[in-house]
Amino acid sequence: MRLSLAEVFRLGVDTLTHNGLARDHAESIARVITAGQRDECHSHGLYRLISCVDAIRKGKVVLDAVPEVEEVSPAITRVDAGFGFSQLAFDRGLGRLIENAQSIGIAALVVNNCYHFSALWPEVERIAEAGLVGLAMTPSHSWVAPAGGGKPVFGTNPMAFAWPRPGQHPYVFDFATSAAARGEIELHRRAGKKIPLGWAVDASGAPTDDAEAALNGAMLTFGGHKGSALAAMIELMGGALIGDMTSADSQRFDEGAQVTPCHGELILAFNPHLLGGAKAAQGAQSAEAMFDSIRAQGARLPSQRRFEARERAQQDGVELPEGLYRDILALSGR
Amino acid sequence: MRLSLAEVFRLGVDTLTHNGLARDHAESIARVITAGQRDECHSHGLYRLISCVDAIRKGKVVLDAVPEVEEVSPAITRVDAGFGFSQLAFDRGLGRLIENAQSIGIAALVVNNCYHFSALWPEVERIAEAGLVGLAMTPSHSWVAPAGGGKPVFGTNPMAFAWPRPGQHPYVFDFATSAAARGEIELHRRAGKKIPLGWAVDASGAPTDDAEAALNGAMLTFGGHKGSALAAMIELMGGALIGDMTSADSQRFDEGAQVTPCHGELILAFNPHLLGGAKAAQGAQSAEAMFDSIRAQGARLPSQRRFEARERAQQDGVELPEGLYRDILALSGR
Fold this sequence. Notes:
Ribosomal Protein S8, Chain: A, domain 1; Hypothetical Oxidoreductase Yiak, Chain: A, domain 1
């Protein structure tokens, strides 16, 4: 199946509204799902509609939540998502975030009380489109053990960063602080495959290469004690600091329903013109020189594969497996 | 040799002023050196005076630089260190950073044009003492290869974070984004010991366990491509964003003198009361619950060893090897 990006977007909106989600929410979500499909991040593409509809049907998410925007200070915008999905809340707060950062150089967007399932790169890329540097982080559900322990405390806790590059794709990364994605371990379990050692421990805290034992035990962070410290920082910055749930809080709040995590998100924007002052242009050149010296030695910048997929998709649309297309059509009421 | 903390401080001030450093600079540096010695971070304790005096004698550092504080915006304070050491510039900007974060919730302290050699934890701990969350990062000299490459681009690029805990030591980490400290590799070389694989590559880009080959090749980041992405973020945030040098720029600026790196530093402060709003107290409780769940499983919080050493030192002073004490006395003119 080949679909244009406009068709992907319409399929997303139709599927979500057919299942009872308010149109403004459906459009915000369909935009990030279209971006995921376009960039060949398949787990964040149309495939994600399946778990999204599942979350809707479980009845926890407020389907017509109206995000409430509060200007806390010249630097802080808070959006209370009202226990709806996060994307509309982000969209409603983004304009103020950008204006604040343009005006005083740094700003925060705090999103509270949202159900969260999307990647963070679409958000930091929108900040970079405004010529600003974006940094975003959020907890998830407590699946990941701290270094030196074996019991779950942290979420997979992603962190995303974008640096604007005029006339080019931004420098962007978006990674989980867990050694692997939880979905990756689930795929191994379904396929009956071993997982690499270092991804997880079993319920007794011992290293395991068994996917089932890993899912019943605890995942590990990337990078040992440093990755573990970062995961804790994300709990604190994207949870406790903004008066919202940590991954453990969110796990309890879920009450076993296995809905996408409910918590908050912290998004920061930085203005290179104000932070760099008279040397801002020189700073931008230093950044480009660094990117050049990475690429000159044959190393890749993060997100390059996504950008290459994006260029293909903008020309030719996206390719979708027949089975997935039929599954989604069945949910869409078409 | 046993010295009280007051004696460590005086020895630091005397040694630095005897070598021509202005008294206000000497006091700022002696404070962080005393903190390092107190916390048994020996490489950042009195030992550091040796390389500090070496840097002074090489004639690059401006010994009586007067930090110039500029209020860029309600959120940004810039201190031009005037090519002096960083510590006095930090001290001069800290008050504004704290006031801005207290007033509008987030603030940045940009330090430009400084020679930098200290750990970052003393800085973020001072932010935490004010009840704020601190985050600091800085480049160094280009010694570290990006993931997928084998040539130096990044510095050892430390990042430090502190979370205030009323009545207790803060949650603090301070780590290099390189797999190991450069000094650690140098110690292995002097001892004729192999380094672990994963720390570095040789000049041809091949993995090496030879310390000499590592120092002539490139160090590696911790955590593979994720650590590499973080190292790049620190170049961008602590260098390009603030209109200052990246690690490669700083390496060139050094012109082979092997003085401590000259560049900038970005320090951020966050106010939990404004970011958490009505739920700030609940956020603080969630943080404590997370710390408890880490410790309950026998894992340690970062910096615990430092805090234990600190309590000993505050009672009993610090223990210093005779040889080191004599080396420093010889530099101090006493």
